Each structure stands twice: as C-alpha cells, then as structure tokens.
Amino acid sequence: MEYITAGESHGPNLTAIVTGVPAGLPVSVDHINSDLARRQAGYGRGGRMAIEKDTVRVTSGIRFGRTIGSPIALEVANRDWENWTDRMAAFGEAPRDLVREVTPRPGHADLVGALRTNTDDCRNILERASARETAARVAGLLHDWDKGYDDPGILARADELGMELDAELVAMPRVLHGLTAAVALGRAFPELPPEVLAAVERHTLGDAGMSDLDMIVYIADALEPGRKGKVVEKLREKIGEIELRELFLEVYAYWVQLIMERRHPIYSKTTEIWNSYMPEQEVYRAEANPDPIPYGRP
Fold first, then answer.
1. How big is the CA angle at 99 (ends 94 and 100), to the nearest 5 degrees?
2. pLDDT one-digit tens code per residue, 85-127
C-alpha cells in the first residue's frame, strides 16, 4: 500500500489518498477519529490543538463499510483556515501587508525546502513541514461511518438515534446516512465543531446556504472514483478550473438530472435548494408601446 498527502497547515483542509488497499476490508470511521483525538492529546502538542477538533471525512474508496479496491480519499478540515484566507489564498494577488517568513525554524525543513524551491518566503515550506499535516497521515491509515447500513438498517439506525423522520425521508432511506451520521458523530464526539457535523449531514441531499466545506464534501462524494460516465469525467476535469460554487451547482444539477432519468423520487426541497443559489432576477417592466398590436399583424 502507498499513500500521499496534500494540504497546508493553514489551508482549507488536509487530504490523504491511499492506494493499493485490497477490496473487502472492513473499516470504521470511529477508529480513525479515535486515533485522531489521541494524536491531538499527544506529547508536544501546541496551542493549535485548542483550535482544531479533527474528524475524518471519507470521500472515496469505501462502500457499505468495506474497501472496494479503488483509491481511498480522506479529508480533515482546518478550522483555523478562516483566519488565513487572505494570506493562504490559492489565487489572486498577495495582500500588500503580507509579511514574508524569512527566518527558517531550527530543526524543521524550512531552510532545505526554501533552497530546493528557490523561494524567499519560508511560509511556502513551513505550511507543509508542520505537525498539522500529520492529521491527514493519521486519517490515511484508517477510515468510515453510517453508509454500511442497508435500507431497513438505516431506518432502524435513525430510530435508534431517536430521529423523527417525515414520510418522505422514510421512503428515501438511501439518502439518510448523512443525517444519521451527523447525529451519531455529534453524540459520540461532542467536541466536533458544528461545521463538520453540518457537512456530514448535507452531503447527500444538499441544502441552502452550503459552506465551502459542505460543497467540497458534496462534490467529492458525487465525483469519487468508481462513479463512471462522460458527464462525471467532464465535471472532474473542472476541479480547480472553475469557482467552487459553480462546480457545486453543476454537480448538483447533474445529480438531479440523473435522479430524474432513473425515475427515482426527487426530494421535495430540491427546487427550493436550487433557487437559493440563483441570482435575484431583475423585475421586468413593459415599455409603453404605441402599437396596439405589438406582436405584428397578419
């Protein structure tokens, strides 16, 4: 097996991709999150651990609680990203008041990395040479949650959690694992931030007012390895090429169309969700027209 990680210490998230995992191995997100919590309480922890409450999100390679033989992708969000959006932006111009990191930290990879990449800002190096980056590595060794239930099982799970589902959702059990997982995770790990639980809950049905993290998880789940089709391939090619919001809307529209083509029931709030992302339409006002028959005469 091999794994590779991506993400910066103060970027939006950390990602790990594990390849070469045999199919059929049982996995549990409980075990992953437990080890992530142990890591945060380990020797040498810094003040950053008071900010972050790590939990893994699996976006590919697992089906019904078992590996399926394809690459496994895992994500750990950085709560501190909101304080670094200007200084760690992927695109645009650097802020005028940006202060470069010019003093390499002793015992770190800052100096070697700066020399190797010919940069005059150690920030580019220290964001990866960071204890924060190990969160993705811990997640890369483990995984998963509620998607392993069949239809009767997920309904029993919702009942077990004391969730009151309306008749519509009871009739759509295959979209419930996000909702049940959010409730179960919140109870098992009360320290999890609300934004993490919201992303778990929203990744199947979507919602109005989705955050960047919500959209990332929704897109990753919809375009994960194993999903096939020309439209899926085209959407994957747009990752990193168009704005996150636009990609989310294209993916959301694709799934609505796919549901209709498969003659599956559509969630009643789908139109409401879609309209919430549409720009407000200008009010049309007819201009005065002296012609009493404005559309022409025979």
1. 90
2. 666 565 667 777 777 776 777 767 777 777 777 887 777 776 6
Please, are residues 14 and 127 in contact by the beta-carbon 8 Å criterion?
Answer: no
- 95 Cβ contact partners less than 8 Å away, ≥ 6 residues apart: 86, 87
**Dihedral sign computed on CA atoms, order 150, 152, 154, 160:** negative
Angle between helices 230-237 and 244-261 (to 10 degrees): 170
pTM here? 0.49
Sign of the alpha-carbon dihedral angle for 86, 88, 89, 95:
positive
Burial 51-61 (b: 16+ CB within 10 A, else e): ebbbbbbbbbb
- Report how far Cα 29 is from the mean position of its chain's Cα atoms: 15
Helix (H) or strand (E) holding 94: none
Q: Name the 3-class secondary structure at 150.
A: coil
Indicate the SS3 state at residue 116: helix
H helix intervals, 70-193: 110-117, 123-126, 134-140, 151-160, 167-170, 177-188
The answer to whether residues 203 and 217 touch, using CB atoms and an 8 Å cutoff, is yes
Are β-strands 56-60 and 62-63 bridged in parallel, bridged antiparallel, or unpaired?
unpaired
